[in-house]
Amino acid sequence: MTACLRTGRAALIAVVWGSAVLLGLGGPWSAQAQTTASDDPSPHSEATLVSEQSAVVPGEPFTVALRMTMEDGWHSYWKNPGASGEATSINWSLPAGYKAAEIQWPYPHQIQFGSLVSYGYSDEVFLLTEITPPDTLTAGTTVTLDGTASWLICEEICLPARSDIALSLPVAKETPEPTQWAEAFERARAKHPTPVAEWSVGAGRSGGKYQLLLNASDGVQPDLEGAHFYAAEQSVVDPGAPQPVTKNGDTYAISLTQSEYAQAPAERLRGVLVAPEGEHWDPEGDVRAMHIDVPVDSSLSVATATGASSSTAGGGLSLPWALAFAFIGGVLLNLMPCVFPVLSVKILGFAQEAEEGSGAMKRNGLLFGAGVLASMWVLAGALLALRAAGSQIGWGFQLQSPVFIALMTMLFFGIGLNLLGTFEVGTTLMNWGGRMQTSTSSSGGTSAFLTGVLATVVATPCTAPFMGAALGVALTLSAVGALLIFTALGVGMATPYVILATTPALLDRLPQPGGWMETLKQAFAFPMFATAIWLVWVFGRQTSNGGVAFLLAGLLLLGVAAWIVHRWSPPQLSRTATVLSRSLAGAALVGGIAVAVIGAGSAPADRTTPATTNASAAETAWRSYSSTTVEQLRAEGRPVFVDFTAAWCLTCQVNKRRVLTTEPIQKAFDDKNVALVRADWTNRDPEITKALQSHGRSGVPVYVLYPGDGSAPTLLPEVLTDDIVLNALDDLQPSS
After folding, report:
1. How far apart are CA 505 and CA 253, in angstroms?
2. Which residue pairs from 179-186 have beta carbons closer than 8 angstroms and sit at least 24 positions apart in sequence?
3. pLDDT one-digit tens code per residue, 492-526
4. pTM of structure
5. Domains located in the chain, CATH noted
């Protein structure tokens, strides 16, 4: 009965009906249910065991069939039942020495129920099984084959069914005569899938899509519009998604949508490809169902199969377009809230560099760009290496580590102290972004390069418009293709700074250096402190209140180290006092880092209960993400809105506060009966990572709206507005 519960409204009726039986409720429904359960183990259907031949020959395999007949409107299921259901099975009890092979499945047909599409059979079906007898049988004796068949029979409700099956056959020395069922066996075999030599078949994958690629031989050119691929396993291909067919020369491409419940991309596509009514795969016109079992090659696409020069990427996005999207996304990344702290100190750096002349400014602008590119390459290499090793990670993966968050918090707190003038330590770690030296010395160039590195690191909490699709493509390509996309992303991010630093006409518009620069420098300390506060909040979401206390203690020790350096500066001290003060400062700094890292190892806070009892209705309306939750809601025919988010994603938090939890949007969700699901990726979650991959994305934010009619979902932009969400909701069709 478990599988039946997946059939949405039909399952609900069945549960109510079954509950009435268990509770002994009166009325005609109760009486009918009791009669069905007790008197008819195979309701609305019958199953018998029949043989193709009239006798058994010792040692020679023969074929029997489970013949199932179903009342009008009722159906049973194929080996992959699709969106719901349960496959028919036979539990054999054979005499000693007999062996039964697997069921031979004829191709099914699609069964539509609301928004669900299942695979099964109606009216009559013969499920063939080959039986091999031992060669020690004695002619003239009789053997009995028996077992128990189990299946699910469904109409608007689903009922479990079973039947004890048995068949007695004599043992003969010579080849026996066929039985009355022989022609039915041949008709059943005609529906079995078979390989077709006239066709070469391949499979590709990009983003959340598979493509079956078929090359036809001369003389075989069927019209494949309406062909359907039935995957042999569940949770590989979405059974309800459209399967459009395109043709380029002699090559056909059938697009398949990966199941949202797939645990990982399939390495092979196995199943049956059924030609449209009236079409066949072979020149003789005998084969309508082609057996498919091919490896999935992520580099294979319609373009490569037909000799085109460009490769395709997820969702049909070609590599040139992916590079363009990455470049635009990199430029727009500078406008995202997570980049603002480094943007502010870069503005301060331009003001300071203007005093040194255009030559130093150009050099440091290029070094800043080099820092962005180098860190992008390191980030891309680490991400690709970890994914190749089997880790389920994506863009911003390092921010899922509490240790990394703790170190970043201390870095930004230290930069803020440096900008306030609390300490000066040359070009140490705390000087990366806080002290933009632009002299001709090597320290100025190092500072510019490290500022580019820091800009990349703090940019990873955000996914700018156009970035999501490009990054999703990057993780489906080879290492070279992925590095090209990350390079385009870095070039786009660095371009505004490099243009400003290398364009004399723009340099002339910069204000002249003066006393105002010190005030501006100190003012820019406060965005750094704000970033540190945000990181502490993220750290608390990942760990616990105790972990936050450790991190704050680490920041306190960092403040002590900065105070020691400022209070006892070298010109005022003897050599011994200088060594002592710097040793104490170093010990405080190391101790602060150690305490923060210890806090990162504290147990995560319990997220199963709300943090406060007065949570807003807008917040309590959201359910936690799981593939089962989304599946159940869609089975009910409800639209589902999934918010893929993370505490460290500032764009996510801005969208949440300004759009998703506002009263007009919440009212629109309620009016459309939209179920709200939040996929929190703050900590590493392989299930959420796989769900992102199924949509061709590798980072957050991602917003997915599933219509209530079972059709393909809609992906909304990374930056939301009220109009974007309301227009998407207006496009929803009435759900069942």
Report:
1. 53
2. 179/50, 179/51, 179/52, 179/53, 179/54, 181/50, 181/51, 181/52, 181/65, 181/67, 181/126, 182/52, 182/53, 184/65, 184/67, 184/126, 185/52, 185/63, 185/65, 185/126, 185/128
3. 888 888 887 777 666 666 666 666 667 777 887 88
4. 0.45
5. 3-100+113-187 (2.60.40.10), 199-312 (2.60.40), 319-401+425-523 (no CATH), 617-730 (3.40.30.10)
